[in-house]
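wait is this the right file?? whatever heres the structure
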């Protein structure tokens, strides 16, 4: 594995090491089974919500439209980090490529942002339902619901792109061990040996 690079040039770095949750060899099968079962429950639970929302015409209202979008984002969010962690446990490898790390970071930030924006949209939906019940269907029309979802995606996409591009400009030296089971933005930024002032801001 090549970890060394010259300061000011991040093209030589090939990979990062993900330390994971525990170094204990005996705990690895337990961690694997626990996270695999939680991951599968998350996927199937959210798929059931989406299928129920699509199949039942009574649920074709804004609240359930937002909820099904939230479930989709939840599936994407967990799929960004957990499968790689499970593969690393099974293969007894801690390696993630530089490109893989940046991609994982980009997707993680994207879906975390979307989670937050969708929760805000759902809160606004409930606010309208409670405070303006007679005008609810007029205010929360399909066009507005679509615009709110689209705006959430666009803002999250741009914010995630900005954060990821900001990491691209950093240089990494010899210490590229991430004390996490995925490439978390803050951890990666603070492994850089170049100035991280703009990233911190």
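ok assuming it is, sequence goes like this
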């Amino acid at each position: 594995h090549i970890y060394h690079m010259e300061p000011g040039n991040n093209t030589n770095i090939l990979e990062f090491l993900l330390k994971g949750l525990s170094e204990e060899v005996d705990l690895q099968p337990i961690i694997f089974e626990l996270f695999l079962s939680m991951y599968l429950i998350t996927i199937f639970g959210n798929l059931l919500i989406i299928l129920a929302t699509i199949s039942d015409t009574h649920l074709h209202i804004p609240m359930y439209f937002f909820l099904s979008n939230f479930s989709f984002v939840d599936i994407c969010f967990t799929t960004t980090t957990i499968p790689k962690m499970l593969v690393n446990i099974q293969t007894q490898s801690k390696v993630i490529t530089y490109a893989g790390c940046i991609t994982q970071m980009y997707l993680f930030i994207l879906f975390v942002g979307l989670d937050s924006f969708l929760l805000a949209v759902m809160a606004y939906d409930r606010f309208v339902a409670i405070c303006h019940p007679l005008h609810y269907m007029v205010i929360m029309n399909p066009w507005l619901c679509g615009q709110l979802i689209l705006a959430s995606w666009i803002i999250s996409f741009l914010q995630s792109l900005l954060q990821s591009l900001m990491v691209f400009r950093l240089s990494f030296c010899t210490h590229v061990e991430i004390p996490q089971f995925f490439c978390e933005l803050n951890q990666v930024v603070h492994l850089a040996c170049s100035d991280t002032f703009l990233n911190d801001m």
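The longest strand covers residues 15-18. so i think its the right one actually
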